[in-house]
Amino acid sequence: MGSAVDGQHGERTELVIAEFSGRADAVLSAAFATISRAQIARLISDGRVSLDGEPVKKSAWVQAGQSLLVLLADEAPSAGSAPASPLPVLYEDDHVVAIDKPAGLIAHPALADTEDTVSGWFAARYPELCADLDPARPGIVHRLDRDTTGIMVLAKTPGDAATLSAAFESRTVKKTYIAICNGVPEQERAVIDAPVGRHPGDRGRMAVVRDGSAREARTAYEVLGQRDGKSLLVVHPESGRTHQVRVHLSAIGAPVLDDPLYGTPGHGRHQLHAALLSLPHPAGGTLNLQATLPRDMAARVRSMGLAPVASEYLQPSSAARSSAPE
Q1: If I label 90, which of 6, 72, 126, 162 is the partner at 20 to 30 A Cα–Cα?
Q2: Which positions are catalytic?
Q3: 288 DSSP assignment
C-alpha cells in the first residue's frame, strides 16, 4: 500500500493492491485494519474509492492484484469527540482512571474520524495530560469492541501507559467476561485453545485459522446455567486477540447472542460484558475492578431465570486497590 499527499487540499491518496479476490469493502477492511466497516462504507458512499478511474460500490468485486485508489483526509491525529453523556468512572487516582464503557462506543478513532470515542472522553476530561500521550489515542492501553460493555482502564502518564501495556502483553491481567450465548457448549467447563486470525473468505472478520498465519489464543469458560437453548457463561480470555471471545464461542457452537458477525443478528447489541478486571497498579499493589451487568443483559439473565447463579455479577460496581507487599 502506497500513499501520496496533496498538501494544498489536506488530503492523501492511498493505493491499495488487493491481496485477494473479494468485495471492495472486504478488501479495504483487510488493508486498513484500524478503520471500521462503517467508516469503509462511508468512504465508498462518499465516492472516495475508485477502481480503474471509476467510483466503486461496496459490493463491487475486486480481483486479486487490482488496485484501488482511496482518498483520505490528511489531518492531524484526533482522539475523536467526547460522548454527550459522561462515562461512569469506577476508580481514579493520579495514575489511572477506570470506566464502565457503554455499548456503541469505540476505544479510539481510525485516522481522523470524529466519532465519539473513549479516547475523546479522556481528552476532554484531562486536556492537561494529553500533551505527553499519544494524540490519537490518549490513555488507551487496551480495547473493548464497540458493543462490548464493561471495564476499561486508561493511563494518565506515558510511564503508566507503558507499565499497563506491558501487563496486558505479559498476561498478568486477569479478565472475566459474562456472555449470554445462543446455544449450549457440549462441555460444562473447558479451555478453548485455538489460533485466531483473519477469516480466509472475509478479511473483515476473524476466525479460528490453523494454517500457521494466525496467533495462538486461549479462552477458558464455565457454563453458569442454561434455558431454552441459550446459556450464560463466565469467560476468562487468557490472551487478547481481536474478537477472541466472540470467535472462540462461535467455534464451539455457542456464539454470543445477537452477534451479527459470528452468530445471528438480533434486535440489540451482542450480549458480552467485561465484568471483572484484576491488574498490577502502576504504583504498586493490585487494582481489582467490577462492573455490574448492564440493564439489557441483567434483564435477559432474569428472564432466563438465572439471576441466582449470576448474583455475583449483578452486584453494584466496585473498585479496590490492595497495597504493595513490603
Answers
A1: 162
A2: 145
A3: E
- From its phi and psi, is residue 258 left (phi > 0), alpha (psi between -120 and 50) or beta? left
- The Cα–Cα gap between 49 and 58 comes to 9
Structural domains for the chain: 2-73 (3.10.290.10), 89-169 (3.30.2350.10), 174-322 (3.30.2350.10)
Q: Give the span between the Cα atoms of 101 and 99, in whole angstroms.
A: 6
In angstroms, the CA 263 to CA 58 distance is 22
Q: Per residue in 282-319, pLDDT tens?
A: 999 999 999 999 999 999 999 999 999 999 999 999 99
Q: 185 and 302 in contact (C-beta within 8 Å)? A: no
Q: CA angle, corner 163, sides to 160 and 165, nearest 5?
A: 105
Sign of the four-CA dihedral 274, 279, 282, 287: positive
Q: What is the dihedral of CA 147, 148, 151, 153, to 10 degrees?
A: -70
